[in-house]
Amino acid sequence: MRNHYRVSLIPGDGIGPEITEATIKVLEATNVQIDYELCLAGAAAEEHLGNPLPEETLKSLWQTGVGLKGPLIVQPGSPPVVIGHPPRTYGSPNAALRGECGIFANIRPAKHFSGVPGRFSDLPINLTTVREVSEGIYVGGERKIGAGRAEAVVVATQEAAERIARFGFKLVQREHRKKVTLVHKANVLPYTDGLYLETFYRVAHEFPELSAEDRMIDAAAAQMVLDPVAYDVIIAPNQYGDILSDLAAAVVGGLGLGPGGNYGEQIAFFEACHGAATDIAGRNIANPIALILSGAMMLDYCGEQERAALIRRAVEEFLKQGRELTPDLGGTGTTKGTAEAICRLIEASS
Ligand code: NAD
């Protein structure tokens, strides 16, 4: 734990600037000292600098080692992002940011909060998705191969499969959780998903006290809706983790409650699991809680567990009280009002 932190701040696009402002207020309420380095990426960077992922943004992240990020708009059909010499090609600025920062794991906790209406509001859901993000089908190897035909490459390596499995098992140990489930489709993809499956059970031997199981991705999606408490920590190859973690956020009350962290060997940055929500941008009605909880994950990463817990308790209390909730949670509250109420709860408890 240090007294002072430097964080690269990427407000991003759409609702990004509103929810990052709200999150900074909540972080300030814990009295943590953070100097933010403002960085551009996505449509905002394209507009001001003609580049969706400027070199300065990457430089800042490599210097601070920690980032807080809003969502980036990715227009369908926009050209791939090409960086460096020799050139490295990515399908989107988000993929480029992860790739250039050496990110390999994306963690998305989905937790039940009392007070949040929904189909499963009486279940104690606590489900974390550990998604591999350095390979899979999002590596940018997609191409047209003639009229009416296209193909995409899936990359799977033993090194990445081992790294994500070990990362997932260690998370289970650290958080005193019980069970790890690998999702896959190894019956039809025996070489790529099969490699993940085989590697998962090999790594599981290093953690004999933990329970390890696997599920086909289609069955796992169905079970997550029928019996969401059946899962504890899920390890998933890139695309399955992308989809399943949004499903998990929806199961506990919506995208506005789903935080996330991206972890590499040297850099970690934190962002909500939702996108830029352009349909509600600029109206002060976006739910900032997903990014606020991502801010708590950032404090954990910095060794500030007590301050992170303050934020989580205040969010829990705010949702339980159920006043001033934003429209996605059935209320008429605002982004700013949510942040102010959470700040008041932090100040009252610290
Ligand atoms: P989205 O997650 O932005 O929105 C889906 C729906 O959920 C919308 O109706 C939106 O209003 C609502 N929503 C999302 N977050 C909310 C919040 N915090 N509070 C209240 N409501 C919320 O997904 P989309 O509409 O498919 O994508 C919009 C843009 O965001 C696209 O350009 C997409 O590429 C981009 N995107 C970026 C990221 C990222 O940067 N990590 C992730 C996903 C999508």
Short description:
With 350 residues, this protein is an alpha/beta fold. It has helices at residues 16-29, 43-49, 55-64, 93-100, 158-174, 192-204, 217-226, 238-251, 289-301, 305-321, 335-349; strands spanning 4-10, 33-38, 66-69, 81-83, 88-90, 103-111, 126-132, 142-144, 150-152, 179-184, 211-216, 233-236, 261-264, 268-270.
Can you walk me through this structure?
This protein is α/β, with parallel strands linked by helices. The protein has helices at 16-29, 43-49, 55-64, 93-100, 158-174, 192-204, 217-226, 238-251, 289-301, 305-321, 335-349; strands spanning 4-10, 33-38, 66-69, 81-83, 88-90, 103-111, 126-132, 142-144, 150-152, 179-184, 211-216, 233-236, 261-264, 268-270. It has a 10-stranded mixed beta sheet with strand order 2-1-3-14-13-6-7-12-10-11, with helices on both faces. A two-stranded antiparallel sheet has the order 4-5. Strands 8-9 form a two-stranded antiparallel sheet. Helix 1 packs across helix 9 (289-301) and helix 1 runs parallel beside helix 11 (335-349). The longest helix is centred in the middle third of the chain and has 17 residues, at 158-174. The radius of gyration is 20 Å and the shape is globular. The model has no long low-confidence stretch (mean pLDDT 94).
